[in-house]
Model the fold of this input.
Amino acid sequence: MLELSHVHKVYRVGAFGGGRLRAVRDVSLTVEPGEVVSLIGESGSGKSTLGKMVLGLSRPTGGTITFDGTDITTIRGHAARKEYYRRVQGVFQDPFSCFNPIFKADRVFEMIRTSYFPGVSDADWRDRVLAALATVRLDPGNVLGKYPHQLSGGQLQRVLIARALLLDIKLLVADEIISMLDASTRIDVLNLLSDLKERGLGILFVTHDLSLGNYVSDKSVILRKGAVAEMGPTLRVFENPLHPYSRHLLSCVPQLHRTWAEVDAELAANPPEDVVLPVAADEESAPLLEVEEGHFVGIDQG
Amino acid sequence: MTNVAGAPGAQPAAEPAAPRKGSETLHYARRNPKLLIGLGIVLAFLLLGLIGPLFVDHGPNEYVGPQSQPPSGEFWLGTTSFGQDIWAQFVFGVRTTFLIGVFGGGVAFVIGTAVGFIAGYKGGIVDEILNMLTNVVLVLPAMVVLIVAIAYLDARGVFVQGLFIGLTSWPWAARAVRSQALSLATRDYVDLARLSGRRTGKIITTEIAPNMSSYLVMSFILLFGGAILIAAGLDFIGLGPSDGVSLGLMLESAVAWSALQFGMWWWFVPPGLGITVIVSSLYILNVGLDEIFNPKLREL
Amino acid sequence: MTLRVNDLKVYYQTLRGDVHALDGVTFDLADGEIMGLAGESGCGKTTLGKSLIRLDSRMRHVGGTIDLDGKDVPIADDDAMVPLRYHEISLIPQYAMSALNPTRKIGRMINELLRSRGVRPADISQELTRRLELVGLDADVLNRFPIELSGGMKQRVVMVMATLLNPSLLIADEVTSALDVSTQRSVAESLVEFRDREYVKSMVFVTHDISLVYQMADTIMVMYAGRIAEKAPAKTIINAPRHPYTQMLISALPEVGSTMEQGRLEGIPGTPPGLLNPPTGCRFKDRCPMAFSKCSEQPPLLEIEPGHWAACWKTG
Done:
């Protein structure tokens, strides 16, 4: 459904754009219907840039991003772009900044209506909004007619997911959508994503938190400095991490029932086998090596 | 995220349901003393400038009465040392002052916001060129340019004066609007509006501009006040409209004819106070508007 | 006993009334203890951290006492608190990265701080270098501006600054939240190292991340809506929590290696009560599946086994 092929993003930085900042380097991946793909990385890994490019908010400097056969980087004109957003939507990290503070929160629904469903009657539209709110398990009385600052982060985030559901979307880009939520509401939003997945939605789940990444996703992509370090079925990536960077990350994640000391001791007792990493031919490319079926390892970046 | 318990975001249940939609801004506007006081004074002066002259049956510069009279029942604000009616001069002067403020401030506002919005939203090379232009105009010694330009012209009217003031005082407004637009254009809700299939023009007018509405009003008010002050300064050094009367011109002639030394307070106090009160109530009005437009400030 | 907090109440003043951010908090902190202070946003954990060192202008001390090493800590009296700060109690703030003055070099900032505390910088410069090295920083950072350092480096600089005078109590407020996982681990481990070397006697580590605090804390205290729900050794909180809130909170956390297929986790329905007019009785009762009639009375914080305190009628 969604296919990224050798996507690059280079920013010009500094005075007169003299410097170059490589944010995304040679990334290829796919998202199928009903599949959740986690993009996992630390700050500066390019994960959010990838999300923004899929949403057409930023343009790749190289490579193609195809959605159902159309290269979205070639979409020109407002009408075509609007059609794309009918099928692909995004939810962002900071729910508070996604709402224009001077308008009520439910205005995000109205915007969808005026853009995509101008012909729908008031009663019909209200039913659709209520249905979407029910899907995200929000009580309409608690959120309709409220200003953003009167709602909690979890409520706002679910309003935004409900907004995306008003359209008949195929792909949802969820960019760090729970990092600002509290532990007791986080899991509900994650569960909601998995319900949506059951309904056949493809989800690109961008996160910096490894434990969240593998709770929901079918496929995990670990990014480092813009390039893929490791990619494969989530269970394989977490049970048998191949790239030294993935192993390092996993050893640093605070775990609930195991301390760092225990993790280190375990690693020392059973040191994982070294894997031969692919070598990049130049500054631009970042080849992957298939170590086991569907499980790829990327270049070593020091 | 806020960690303050009970901060506005933390307790959704405590908020009373907002009853009406459109009238809400009005609801808060009616309860804001700063807005009411500022607006009241500005409107009172506007009204004075609009209808005051209709009740004066002689021209402001005609010699109609005894010389150097203090305020009395006949001449409310007294007369000048030539026997001109100061009340008549005052109401005509207020009219001129508003004209110059609206026109001069308006020209500066239109140029400034247009340049600011385009530079801020478009970014890149457009931004750099416009920014350079803004900076060039900003460092021009505006007063000197005005003095030279206006002294050079033969026929000096209110509009010419306003136009020149407008053409030289827009840069700071452009810079302010640009920086705001620049930061607003990267907000997530602007991205969200793009994802909702909104056009760029519509995003500027419905997402970015309303967030800046108080800012825009503030810019206009400050430009308005600034134009009044610049005009008063020009008038005071004798470069005012050659064919009329303004508060600045009144001050100029009061000083020129030694009203201060003769203790003729009624000659210089009304125009001086008029300028001060108009400009300061504009500023108070602006603070009040900020509190109304920003729902967060309402509750503090 | 390093720290003893007894029935502390601190309210936030707002135009709509007092927000009962801390409403009767009682606990002890032993010498050498690192206590993790966990809870959701708005539970009062940051307020508690701040109250131990400095009340801001909106915070009002309503009742209760704080003893540090047997001496009363006069938190309501800002002037009397000044000599205690840095010497006895020190804080690493949540946004330490932005707490550094961007126009000053790090070294100059540290010297100014020391002088304002009546300490000659020269007396301590060797110790400073040693501690910077301990957290993996070169002494060269003293000649750099904050902007030249990464987030993790700044956080470590602030850590060293805050503990330079060997305070008795260190409050670390969400110090690792903005860091990447690998930096997070090294910063957390440095904090433990500081305790082990007795640069600080004891520490309160405020965080929303229970799995992180489990890695480094000796005890964990869980707060809910301005009150203490449970305090116990870290292992006990994670493996055998007794308060229903703690139980639900722990079971809502996804773990590395756990997937949806292995078992769907559930969140806690509902939202915490507003603290402007907090409900009477147990504050968790509206979200608690075990609530019964007794819960309309406030449950006391009781020691249910040695070192394990909980405030719930079901555990008492």
